[in-house]
Specification:
Layout lengths: L9 H5 L1 H9 L2 H14 L6 H24 L11
Helix pairs in contact: 3-4
Length: 81
């Protein structure tokens, strides 16, 4: 029987959440949370992993927001007239 945390499974390739997390660069941290949860069966024991993953995701979101802001054309107030 395959481990539910075996990242070579075909199921993960089609999972949109897995794909989204992979694009952030935070996937290994996400897997660390899953492994901790599987081991401890208590999310409170995994707060260090959760915080590290949260920090990674926030950094990705901040960088993405800045990237989008740089590519946004300047708004013109007269366009609504």
């Amino acid at each position: 029987m395959a481990s539910p945390h075996d990242r070579s499974r075909k199921d993960d390739e089609d999972d949109p959440v897995e794909q989204m997390i992979s694009r952030t660069g935070c996937a290994e941290l996400h897997y660390a949370i899953q492994e901790c949860m599987a081991e401890h069966q208590d999310w409170r024991a995994c707060q260090s992993q959760v915080q590290t993953f949260k920090d990674c995701m926030m950094n990705f979101q901040k960088a993405r927001k800045e990237q989008l802001r740089q590519h946004q054309p300047p708004s013109t107030k007269s366009a609504a007239s």
